[in-house]
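Dig into what follows:

_____
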Amino acid sequence: MNQIRAGMGIPDSAFSGNALAGRLPTVFGYDRHVAAGGLISYGVDLIQCFYRTAYFVDKILRGAAPGDLPVEFPTKMLLAVNLKTARALGLTVSPIILSRADEVIE
């Protein structure tokens, strides 16, 4: 019997492909997994996080004490849906979810 385990370091397409072969809907934290065949993702916008990281590195390199800088949490979240995967799983995605999605893969 095949076992599916949570996998760190497994290529996105391999993980999504195995889940699809097992007819398992998947939910991820990053939109890149949906592009690789995952069903849905909801998580932070990594690009925005990288920009904010650069902002803080610049402040520190210009002499600011790291302890004096405020802690920030991501403010932009991304919702991505893969309709191709949904069809392969025999699922219907709510029109409300689709209208709120930042990215819909047909």
